[in-house]
Amino acid sequence: MAFPPQFLEELRTRLTLSEVVSKRLRLIRAGREYKAPCPFHNEKSPSFYVNDQKGFFHCFGCGAHGDIIGFVMRHDNLGFPEAVEHLAGEAGLPVPRPTEEDRQRYEKRKTLHDLVEQAARWFEQQLHLPAGRTGLDYFLRRGLDGETIARFRLGYAPGDSNALRTYLGKQGFSDDDMVNAGLLKRPDDGRSPYSFFRNRVMFPVTDRRGQVVAFGGRILEGDGPKYVNTADTPLFHKGTLLYGLSRARQAAADGKPVIVAEGYMDVIALVRAGFEGAVAPLGTALTETQVQELWKLIPAAEKVPFLCFDGDNAGRRAAWRAVERILPHLAPGQSARVAFLPEGEDPDSLIRAQGAKAMGAVLEAAIPLSDALWRMESEGRPTDTPEAKAAVKAALEARVATIADRDVQSFYRTEMRRRVDEAFAPARPAYNRGPWVPGQGRGRFGEAPRRHVPGTPGRLTSKPAGEGRGRASRLASMRERILLATLINHPDLFGELAEPLGLLPFGDPELEKLRWAVIECLSDDRNHDSTLDADALCRHLSSAGHETMVGALLGESTYVHAGFARPDASTEDARKGWWPAWRHLHHERVLDDLREAKAALTRDNSEANFARVVALQQEVIKSGLGIADSDFDEL
């Protein structure tokens, strides 16, 4: 059975030889290769080598040699069709049935490969001829030596628009082939095609296997865009390849970092400085396909490439676009880090001025993707009003919602909520300034405690326990118990949680009394001279007549619903658990107010009552942002 040649080529590209072999043999790293005792003859010391970059295996003992298909045929004792179908299953590729059209298409691709390779050699030659002197001078001014120029196969396209066409025509290639390969451009008026690249230094672009498939060209003088790239062709799609990809594959296999820079010269500078895993997009912003390609390069446990951007505003905008594209595709262990260079520098200029160590420092300072997301949505935004803070929170929630993997999305949501809480948490209120009001506690900032009067615009209100709320009331009561138990067991959190606790009246009268007692005790100046731990706080509350309530509160009936409230829970776990409970309770209180406002509007259709309903509806939306059942499933 015959298979389309392009299918076999795709199969070899999709699968890494070492991955297939390692499922059958125990491979040992040996520099850039892997080795193992040969499975095809008896031996004690390994002489069987696997080379991913070259795509073949070889045994120096028995001479066995071949590619990924040949290995499976020989090891699994399969015929060619069976081995191909087996590997196609591993790669997730449907097995096509070959046609004459498929064979012709492969022959055309082979012709184009030969054509583009001939063009690359011609560009290299032109660089060292008198006509290419301006191009060579440009590279020398940029600090490149002859070895680097040869290593990256840099070249020059002269200004003569017919020179390349003439040369390739003599090699037997047609104008149509040159147009299909992106080397010639055919005018709309029917004139003869002319060279697409003229008066430019040339950067050959290779595919995953190191074959030249396209070019990038930088103009040296005259009009035109600074950089141009080969348009999409049968060999090349700019959104799927990366400059330097074939070299980065081997560097990643050797454990070196994969770094995404912004341009050709940046990649060359990084590779010369020892960062051989450097790649760059080809005239576009980083695409989703290119991100997936990056993750394929890196060993499974380390799928975190560095995205390197200039330190100016344009660099930050490019970074945020990359973050936006990557987020939906995050998966466990599959992320990225974002590195910003100093203002006015790119990798090329930084390395030339300060050396490889300076670039290494930039990578060491790279931030996780979660930090980049926070900066992306919070930097430069106003946060001086509740509405502005809610806008930041909403933007973060919207970004996190694009992450497809549910586990990663859940952890990101938790992380972003923690950052919002920390950034926007109010400062500790001066509860001790106001007079103590029997049965009500001490007022905030020298005022008596606020109480909502029905019909006024005030926000703080609560209904007596059990008044028309059924199960919701029971849930609210349990959340109230959890909030107090957490704070009693972790009084060191009071400075952070005092104001939100003070602004949320409880529906249970006994718990409301205890709430104010806790606030009063922890706000007392006399207790600030020494640390008031949980045991001391409990003694204070008991002496104030709350012994029975505290005893009922600090038990398994509470802890079974919220382990973070336990006295042996860490402070960080207590903080993380307290805020979702508070948000749920706060949201329910806002809904209570909205019900009351709607009833008032029904009784009196006044502008004031209507405005209050509208305001509360907006607050319901804001207070509900980020609240999901999963935050508090046990309740």
What does this structure look like?
The protein has 635 residues and is an alpha+beta fold. It folds into 4 domains: 5-91, Zinc finger, CHC2-typedomain (DNA Primase, Chain A, Alpha-Beta Complex), CATH 3.90.580; 101-229, DNA primase DNAg catalytic core, N-terminal domain; 258-422, Dna Topoisomerase Vi A Subunit, Chain: A, domain 2 (3-Layer(aba) Sandwich); 431-632, no CATH class. It is built from 25 helices and 18 strands. A 5-stranded antiparallel sheet has the order 1-2-3-4-5. A hairpin with a 2-residue loop joins strand 1 (28-30) and strand 2 (33-36). Helix 16 runs antiparallel to helix 17, helix 17 (386-400) packs antiparallel against helix 18 (406-424) and helix 19 packs antiparallel against helix 24. The longest helix is centred in the last third of the chain and has 33 residues, at 571-603. The protein starts with a helix and ends in an 11-residue tail after the last helix. Mean pLDDT is 81; it is low at 427-471, 525-530 and 625-635.
Brief characterization of the structure:
This protein has 635 residues and is an alpha+beta fold.
Point out poorly predicted stretches: 427-471, 525-530, 625-635
Relative helix content: 40-55%
In the sheet with the most strands, the strands line up as 1-2-3-4-5
Note the overall shape: elongated
Distance between the termini: 62 Å
Number of domains: 4
What is the number of helical segments per DSSP (H or I, 4+ residues)?
A: 25
Taking all Cα atoms into account, the compactness measure Rg is 34 Å
Helix/strand/pairing class, anyone? alpha+beta
Overall strand count = 18
